[in-house]
Amino acid sequence: MTRVLLLAALALACVAPPAFAAEVATIGDKAVILPWGDWLVALAVSLREPILTILLPIIGGYIIQAIRKNYPMAALLLTQKRVEMMLEAAVGYGMNAVQGAAKGKTLSVNVAVPVIAKGTQYVIDTAPPAVIKAAGGADGIAARIFRKLDLDDHASEAGVLVPAQEQIAAGTVDADELRRMDEMTRR
Q1: Coil/strand/helix, residue 135
Q2: What gap in Å lies between CA 32 and CA 103, rounded to an integer?
Q3: N- to C-terminal Cα distance for the chain?
Q4: What DSSP designation does 23 have?
Q5: d(Cα 7, Cα 21) in Å, to the nearest integer?
Q6: Side-chain half-sphere of 79: how many Cα atoms within 13 Å?
Q7: Considering all CA atoms of the chain, what is the largest pairwise distance in Å, rounded to the nearest integer?
Q8: Which of 59, 63, 70, 165 is most buried (most C-beta within 10 Å)?
Q9: Average pLDDT along the chain
């Protein structure tokens, strides 16, 4: 964007000075020319940084507001993308927090329940409320994590998802435990 503006200013400076120059007065048979086109180009080049640092973010904010106001589907797409990113983080956290769970490995029922519970609680503790609401709350997050996991043949919604949701509702997974697990995984 900056290069385009500079090239436009350069082209204007190369082509237009005779057209921008204004004859102010004549002294004898010589014309006094005021080159205000050169001054205009110099002013535009000197204002480049303030324009880029002040006006572009403001204009960008107005564009985003217009998109949100006039195109709700665009906001929905952005929210859904954020929910998907959050779910990927939740699955990764749950897999790392539960012993016996590994990425790419088929999970048994006794491992899948804590993976879902810990992943859901992690999202609830760390994600913005709007994203949690868009995902359907704790039950919706747990259901989405359940769908993302590779479960063995004996796993079912009643055997995995319902106990995980009960564990989340009972509050057996707390933020302190998640922080301790997070510290252990960072070491």
Answers
A1: coil
A2: 79
A3: 44
A4: E
A5: 21
A6: 15
A7: 104
A8: 165
A9: 76
- Residue 178: per-residue pLDDT: 47
Q: Report d(CA 33, CA 89) in Å as an integer.
A: 67
**Cβ of 122: how many Cβ atoms within 10 Å?**
25
- Contact between 86 and 127 under an 8 Å Cβ cutoff? The reply is yes
pLDDT in tens, 61-118: 888 888 777 776 666 666 778 888 888 888 888 888 888 877 778 888 788 888 888 8
Length of the chain: 187
The SS3 assignment for 149 reads: coil
133-153 pLDDT, tens digit per residue, is: 888 888 889 889 888 888 888
Local confidence band at 187 (pLDDT 50, 70, 90 cut-offs): low
Strands 30-34 and 22-27: antiparallel
Contact 106, 92 (CB under 8 A): no
